[in-house]
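Question thread 4412

I'm putting together a teaching handout and wanted feedback from people who do this every day. The idea is simple: show students a protein as raw sequence, then show them the structure tokens that encode its fold, then repeat with a second protein so they can compare. Below is the first pair exactly as I plan to print it.
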Amino acid sequence: MTSPAFQTARQQGRLAPLKFEHAVLRTTELAPMVEWYLEVLQAEVSFSNSSIAFLCYDEQNHRLALVVRPGTTARDPSSAGLDHLAFTYADLSELVTTYERLQASGIAPTRCMNHGSSMSLYYADPDGNQIELKVDSFDTCEQQHAWMRSEAFAQNPVGTPFDIDELATQLKAGVPAHHLIGRPGD
């Protein structure tokens, strides 16, 4: 529930969508993409044939679809378009556990960023699309929005890299998650 300090677009009287429903990625190789997303997201296949797969991991019948279309070619990594999709975990322990599971499967992050508002691990799928696995640093929407409007965020909206192995070691050693989340010095 949101407090009076933060209101969604709908609460402000704008006819905005209720939620973001799903994303569809076009690919040249369906099977490797399906396997990768099943592993990374711990998803299930809702439906699949030789040209499309619908994947789910929550109450929605699919959050991600992968489709092969005739004439599709590999995307130039420097071309304009969608940069990444982001998926949020409940807490830092879940994010670290997911990192370790993926690492054991040979899937390593391409970068780890402390955005201040989140701790994020970025991965590249077999087609080179980026996905972000993250945990929020703040407990409320108000805190998240205040951070986005802060001078600290304005000075560095991208964030700072961090060592996920060091973070995992500290978490397992008993350092409370709230000491590990957030940018150093903030």
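The second pair follows. I'd like the answer to focus on this one:
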Amino acid sequence: MLDRYSLLDMRVEVAFELDESDVCLEVPWEKAGGTTRYLDLRSDPKAIQEIEPARRHRPLHNFLATVNSADSVFSTARCRVWLEPETGETSEFASEIDVFFALEDLNAERSHYDGLCQRLLELLAHESGQTVRAELRMRRCRFRATGGSGYCLALFLRARGETAGQAEIRWGLGLAHVQQALLFVSRTVRQRLARAG
């Protein structure tokens, strides 16, 4: 099921991919052959140097470092970036980053992810222009260390430009805004947990 929002000219979409046939992330994960694997950037921040896209794209490096920091209640599981083939007069630079709560208890309940999606929609609505599009996809997730299951959020960000370089710059700016929105949500979650505790 897909809900579309056009808020202040920024296109933000939320999808719920929760059927058994939909993608289900496993954390930690490892690609066949062990060439690529999950890196816990919260416990080992220097491991970010092992992520090739983060070495090539500074905005992604900054996003991963910040979202996995002590200031955040989130962790990341996977990331990738790509340049779409040019269509007509535009280029599109895109990324996918999987995010879940570092506080394991929060991952088991869908309501936490519903709230996260809603809050991100509100925060990202203040951006202008139709050159950047965010897609928030709630997915099922299995946490192998605890044997539990729950949810995660796949964040897709796409930016268009007249050239590949312009699209990448717009993507970097958009990613910085998503990063700030996640930090804002982190503060809110910490305050709520402190009041409840």
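Top answer:
Good format. For the second protein you could add a caption like this: Residues 2-196 form one domain. Strands lie at 2-7, 10-17, 24-27, 74-87, 90-101, 132-143, 148-161.
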